[in-house]
Amino acid sequence: MIDLDMTERKSADTLIEFIDRCIKKSTIDKENLLGIGIGMPGFVNADKGINYSFMQIENDISLQDYLAKKLSLPVYIDNDSSLIALAELNFGEARNLKDVLVVNIGWGTGLGMIINGKLYRGSSGYAGEFSHIPLSNSNALCSCGKRGCLEVETSLLVMVQKAEAAVKNGEETSLKALFNDKSKSHVDHFLNAVVKQDPVAISILADAAFQIGKGLATLIHIMNPERIVLSGRGAKAGKMLLPPIQQAINEFCIPRVAEQTEIKLSTLTDEAELLAAASLMVENSLFE
Length: 288
Known about the structure:
The chain is α/β, with parallel strands linked by helices. It has helices spanning 4-26, 63-71, 80-91, 151-154, 156-168, 175-179, 186-195, 199-223, 242-252, 255-258, 272-286, and strands at 36-40, 44-45, 50-51, 75-79, 100-105, 109-115, 118-120, 227-231, 262-265.
């Protein structure tokens, strides 16, 4: 029998050890740090500092408070896709705009919504669960426990799994040599292969991007945004993302509505969440 609380605490302690190592490696005196901002996947209540999906420590202590106590620094946590949307609003392709959808192409397929120039969180803080729109025809079980979620066909994790299967099946691709290089993750190798126009990698990405575009067609009808920003780690794929997404929008979206929305690639890519996590800490410090 596994003690769930103990397992969750161990995960939190592993995170603490990682943060401590990073602080020491930076050679910055801990006394000169304002604190720590953390972006996390899952159902995060930023006000309470609780992640209801991961690292639930105890009923009477939030993850945020637990980390702050162990690290002896103020800590603030938020959903990763919300943070990426904030980064695009403050530093990227959503600057000076009012209504923008920011897609986080990462381990999942997240969404941050900028409405009237501000991040929209919804009544409980969980708005933007784009991953779990039931658009997939796959019978694969999603991480949420449901079937049919967009995530099971569009996440970077799934793309890499398909790439690994292609290599195993003997398909001609540069991914075989790249995956033998252990100095980088398979995700980085996959995205590099896409940029270098490896046919297998592009085919896998195109299938996922088309499904993302299909989901975006639904959101365009509902939100009528002035811009959609493709951000997160997956935005490193660059212009290769655009044709299949645009194809899906052309196929499933009413032209009069679709033509009002511009699709843009983030220039922040995997730096977006880091910038926003730092901003999260700064903003909270100013209001203390």
